Amino acid sequence: MSTAPLQVAIDGPAASGKTTVARATARRLGVLYLDTGAMYRAVAYLALRTGTEIDNEAALARLLAANPMDLELDESAPLGFRIVAGGHEMSESDLQRDDVTAIVSAVSAHPAVRSEMVLGQQTIAEYHSVVMAGRDIGTVVLPNAQVKIYLTASIEARIERRRLQLEQAGVDVEFHRLAQEIEERDRLDRTRAVSPLAPAPDAHVIDSSDMDAQEVVDKICAIVAAA
Q: Would you tell me which of 67, 147, 148, 169 could form a disulfide with 203, CB atoms 3.0–4.6 Å apart?
């Protein structure tokens, strides 16, 4: 009898450490890693690159139809996978650009965009054991995941983590503006009509404010082992 692929869903607000923790957890468990937020950033980047209006859902749907997004899982890639759309492979610096960050919540709020991204995410999880990070993985994308984690942290810790992430990607950032961006991102994520950010009822909530990434990974792996 075949065993269903392992699905570990990690959700949480911006800069809560999801990407770092999910990638390390996947490595520890020997499974694939997918940061769904990068997929939405790719749509935002493509919209900017083509001049597509971010408030026009139909135009964004046409953009995706004309430029199908291809995800190639590749552990050697900086993100752990490669994203190609419109014949262009997007680098981490592309996805972390300030103008991409400014519009990604608005782009991802459109039902047509989310349905397209969710379908691709579910297809990957159907055939591969995966650790998937995002904002609605446990509630929408993988509602039957064996393990669901809601990772959060104080606003101060999240600002500092985001600042370090951007610096490593070669993006300059000003602290006050970064704080405003994260607070606005939280507001948009929690109030959007489609798949608002919220922990799944059966999620394990982990506050990582005073924990390093390794401690969070240890905790998640213990939860997986006990599942």
A: 148
